[in-house]
Amino acid sequence: MSVIGRVAVALFVRNEQADIASWIAWHAAIGVQKFYIYDDHSDDETYAIIEVAARLFDIELEKTDRVGQPDFYWRQRDSYLSACRKASGREEWLAMLDGDEYINIMDAPSISAFVAPFQAFNAIALNWRIFGSSGRALQEKESPVAVFKAHSSIDFPDNSLVKSLIRPEQYSYDYRDPHRLIMQNETYADALGRRFEWKNSTKSPVWEGAVINHYVCRSMESYVRRIRRRIDADLRNSTAYWAHFDRNEHYSPTRDDFVAKADRHVAAIRSACLSLAIETFATTYAEMGSMAWHPKDGPLSEQAAPQSVAITKEGHFLEIDQFSRFVSLGSAPAARVQGLFDHQSSRMWLFRARFGVLLTDKFKIKDDPRFDYAYEFRVERATDGIYLRSPLTGLYLCAVPNSEENGGIYCNSPNALGWEKFELTSLDDDLNFMSRSVDDPNYASIFEFMTRYGTRIQPNDLILATASLPDRVQTLSFLKRLAPVEWIF
Fold it and tell me: pTM for this structure?
């Protein structure tokens, strides 16, 4: 017998490595308890990422049968029917979704709370809400629900399409399309609990209660990738799809509480993937006998732990502008740049972090030749602050007051004076590093770094090391052989 209030989702997916972790994290954040995922033989990291996520969430994962069923449309049908059979007698409700569709609950504290009033119905039709690109050209590291906030008007014709939440044991298995699922003794409701009239598989749009956020375009880069991976299935080599769906007439941010929960889940998946890389390396290369702490450094416990700090200037944090990606002075905690201060080597790395894991969105410091997600500086101490000097150019980081012409953060000053002085504030956060991080910039390769430190390496150490090593392409190529980490970098 199905468990009252238990909600599951079925996903048919192919080549969604950039966003699959965010999709799982979002639905876990709104309270989905079970995932039935059917991978249509992805040739990127999608399947491997889901395998790692299955360590953290209740996921049943399998591959579709592309030999037995060569047609994309019918493989999707077979996947959804399989999920319905599995869910019958176990889940009270089941939704069948694609990788660009996110259930968005408007007011209820969870999806279980949302479905609770629908006891008189055996299916709920949730309308699409088509989201555009929000003017983004490049693929973002953040979740679509956090990045893309502009969407179509409610009267945009495609919003009349729906995805359905159904009671799986009452499904008829008369499959016609992935939108309207034909039920036994059908009693469909809209998102407000009202009966309605169907027009084929469409209905008048309702955007109250809950909707399906449909991120058809995402960024321009995402769109091109989508065309490439589905040109043999249901898409064509044309910009017509983009022109039709890139709708940005209205602005509607998604609920902050769900976004924060989803971000925490994504951080956990990222950390698990990086941990898998460390574990795989240690297991594979343990026979080399070189996984010990280097003798000249002494016991690990004697090393001074690096300090997590906030860098401030006259009460303002360093932060990253969401669109330009330049570092500036501000006060938005979510955009804050922080530092890891290794007192022994007088080095500091600047980066962003969220829920204990370093972010890998690249940002820019004006007049610094680098463009990366972590920047190393030499620290020079002053009586009431510090100076940060670039190891590449020997120039100092400086904060030109916003009241001055061209105010902002630059790395172009030859002298350590007033504008170049910053203050440090110790942060009590959940960032984990081994006692000595990337303390030697002369490592020739990620292999050498991992050989030296072995399983003492934390996921954040691996991110910093990747930013510090000279050959990024070679480094990522090596790490990809250990675990699904390309999507992280």
Answer: 0.93
